Each structure stands twice: as structure tokens, then as C-alpha cells.
């Protein structure tokens, strides 16, 4: 970001979500915000966190806890351990053929056990018992069983992230994921918002699919997790 240029809400989407449309989820300590641990693992640091912010995060999470950081490109303080780091990309709507799908059904809390089973088999990314509360989740059923799903996760002002796109291996190749992406994007557009999404930078097949659907690359980012020190620096000294 150039000096003097205001940050874009998608540069720190978790922070923009938790200070905007998802403020009702926010658990706050100082300038650090996070979702409840049964909603989402994502938390939000300020754009330029200082020592006090890291101390607040450590106190909020607890000694030895692993915390998930979004869109953070800086170093972690001494004593913190990076436990997970994957390069990612952020893509935004650039002409998606959004449309409702007659077979897509709205998923809610009663569907969570089946959702978690599908997620466990397909590994689309973090999904917790209350993640379904973050936005609209749509699914397709075959013979009563949930076989494909997509929904909404982070919600910066004016934008909504499409996430949890997954299809049972038994029905892959039928275009169900594409149909659900179109349907979720349609709902987002109906609210006057713009869809966006994230995926791994090495997930070239997914990136090609998303670009073919009308997404374009906006920025490169990273997904990382760090472990809180077992003891604070004050306790060690």
C-alpha cells in the first residue's frame, strides 16, 4: 500500500468484518478482535499491531494457544512460534454469471451435523458448529443426503466472502460447485454487495475455475497460525 493511500476493506477483511456487519460476533480485548471460538477461528489484528496488541492477543487466547491470523504479513514477536503458513490469493467478482439455483436449499443450524460430516470428508477449510451463522449457506441434496455446499463467511462492508465450497467425491464433475457459487453470488448481489473469495496460491485448479467463473485476482495474501508463548515475557524475566 502506497504511503498516504487509505487501506481497502479487503486488505484486512476480518477486521473490516468484525468492526462492520459482523460486529455482533466480536470478542474484543484492546484493539484485537476475534470471532467466538465455535463460529470461526479467524481473528483480527490492527493493520500495524504493536507490543500491546500482541500482549492483548496472548491474554485473550491464553498461554500455548494457537491463533489464526488473516492477511498478516509482518513478523511475530519473540517467543511466538509460526505453526502454519500457506501463501494465498484473494479474488473478486469481475463478471460472475450469478443466478439462483432451483435445487439449492438454505442450510441452517439443524443441518450442522450433516454439514460437518461433508466438511470432514472434503476439507474445504475451517468450519465450526456455528459457522453457519456467518451468512447464507446453500446446499444440494441427492436422495436426501447433502452432497454439495457453499456459503458466506467474512463480511466486510459492501463485500461478502464465498467460502466452504465443497462437493462429495461421489458426485464431482457434475458442476454442482459452480451452480452453488452462482447461487451464493446471486444472493450477495441482491443485497447490493460484491462477492470475493480466498484460496491457496498453489491451488491452481481452483484458481482456474474461479477465473473461468468471472473472478479476478485482486491480491496475494497469506494464511498463518501462530502459537502464543507458554509464559509472558514478564513471567520469564
Give your account of this protein's structure.
The protein is of the alpha+beta class and 237 residues long. The protein has helices at residues 13-18, 51-61, 112-122, 176-190, 204-213, 233-236; strands spanning 27-29, 32-34, 42-44, 66-70, 81-93, 105-107, 137-142, 145-152, 159-167, 194-200, 215-227. It has an 11-stranded mixed beta sheet with strand order 1-2-3-4-11-5-10-9-8-7-6, sandwiched between helices. The mean pLDDT is 94.
Based on the model shown, name its key terms:
237 residues, 24% helix, 6 helices, alpha+beta, single chain
What is the compact description of this entry?
By secondary structure, this protein is an alpha+beta fold. Helices cover 24% and strands 31% of the residues. The chain has an eleven-stranded mixed β-sheet with strand order 1-2-3-4-11-5-10-9-8-7-6, with helices on both faces.
Strand content: 25-35%
N-to-C order of helices and strands: HEEEHEEEHEEEHEHEH
Distance from N terminus to C terminus (CA atoms, Å) equals 38 Å
- Please tell me the overall pLDDT: 94
Shape, principal axes of CA atoms: globular
Record field, number of beta strands: 11
Helix content: 10-25%
**Rounded to an integer, what's the Rg over CA atoms?**
18 Å
Q: What structural category do the secondary elements indicate?
A: alpha+beta
Q: How many H/I helical runs? A: 6
Instruction: Note the main sheet.
Output: 11 strands, mixed
Question: What topology, given as strand order, has the largest sheet?
Answer: 1-2-3-4-11-5-10-9-8-7-6
Stretches where pLDDT is under 50 for at least 5 consecutive residues are: none
Amino acid at each position: 500500500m502506497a504511503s498516504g493511500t487509505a487501506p481497502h476493506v479487503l486488505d484486512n477483511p476480518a477486521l473490516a468484518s468484525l468492526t462492520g456487519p459482523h460486529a455482533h460476533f466480536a470478542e474484543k480485548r484492546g484493539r484485537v478482535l476475534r470471532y467466538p471460538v465455535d463460529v470461526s477461528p479467524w481473528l483480527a489484528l490492527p493493520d500495524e499491531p504493536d507490543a500491546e496488541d500482541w500482549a492483548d492477543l496472548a491474554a485473550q487466547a491464553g498461554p500455548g494457544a494457537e491463533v489464526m491470523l488473516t492477511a498478516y504479513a509482518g513478523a511475530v514477536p519473540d517467543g511466538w512460534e509460526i505453526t502454519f503458513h500457506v501463501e494465498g490469493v484473494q479474488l473478486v467478482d469481475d463478471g460472475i454469471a450469478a443466478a439462483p439455483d432451483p435445487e439449492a436449499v438454505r442450510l441452517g443450524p439443524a443441518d450442522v451435523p450433516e454439514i460437518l460430516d461433508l466438511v470432514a470428508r472434503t476439507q474445504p477449510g475451517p468450519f465450526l458448529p456455528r459457522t453457519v451463522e456467518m451468512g447464507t449457506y446453500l446446499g444440494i441434496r441427492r436422495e436426501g443426503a447433502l452432497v454439495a455446499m457453499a456459503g458466506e463467511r467474512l463480511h466486510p462492508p459492501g463485500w461478502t466472502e464465498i467460502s466452504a465450497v465443497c462437493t462429495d467425491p461421489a458426485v464431482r464433475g457434475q458442476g454442482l460447485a459452480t451452480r452453488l457459487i452462482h447461487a451464493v453470488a446471486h444472493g450477495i448481489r441482491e443485497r447490493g454487495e460484491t462477492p470475493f473469495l480466498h484460496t491457496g496460491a498453489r491451488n491452481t485448479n481452483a484458481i482456474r475455475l474461479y477465473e473461468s467463473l468471472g473472478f479476478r485476482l485482486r491480491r496475494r495474501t497469506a494464511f498463518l497460525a501462530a502459537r502464543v508463548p507458554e509464559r509472558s515475557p514478564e513471567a520469564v524475566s
